[in-house]
Amino acid sequence: MFRKLLVALVLALIVPPVVADEPAPKANKATVDLAGDIKDESLQAEAPANGVIVSPKAWEKLAKAWGIPEAPKVDFTKEILIVGTWKGSSFDITPMVKDGDLTVSALGTKDLRPGFRWKVRSIPRQGIKTVQGRPLPSE
């Protein structure tokens, strides 16, 4: 009994107390997270060459070309859109920012299918100065 009390006392001194009322940190959730499948492979060329959209004009153009219904509004002063395409059946895009430089990588399946799959996701614009070593486009 004495040992159990001693262990409990030592643990109470070592382990910091947990406060139940602390809010959990919120992850930055994308305000735009869209995906689709397009049969016409020629439309893949409509994706931005650098993988980002920084203006309403470019977003409207892509949404129209790819037939994205009711494309969400984006506040491009606070966010940018990353765009990825893939010819396999599924993939994901991952943005990384290091020293203000944004790189977007894609990883997916190797099972080629007709057409292409696409993803568009919003990320915070703050701190991004370049995209893959090139200045962030103005349009």
What does this protein look like?
It is a single chain. The chain has a four-stranded antiparallel β-sheet. The protein has a four-stranded mixed β-sheet with strand order 4-5-7-8, with no helix packed on it. The protein is built from two helices and eight strands; from the N terminus they run H-E-E-H-E-E-E-E-E-E. The radius of gyration is 23 Å and the shape is globular. Mean pLDDT is 84; it is low at 2-27. It has one domain (28-132). The protein is 17% helix and 37% strand.
Mean pLDDT: 84
The N- and C-terminal alpha carbons lie at a distance of 73 Å
Helix content: 10-25%
Outline: globular
Rg, nearest Å? 23 Å
Largest sheet: 4 strands, antiparallel
Q: Estimate the strand proportion.
A: 35-45%
Low-confidence residue ranges: 2-27
User: Strand order within the widest sheet?
Assistant: 1-6-3-2
The number of domains is 1
Based on helices, strands and strand pairing, what is the structural class?
A: alpha+beta
The tally of beta strands, per DSSP, is 8
Order of helices and strands: HEEHEEEEEE
Figure out the total of helices: 2
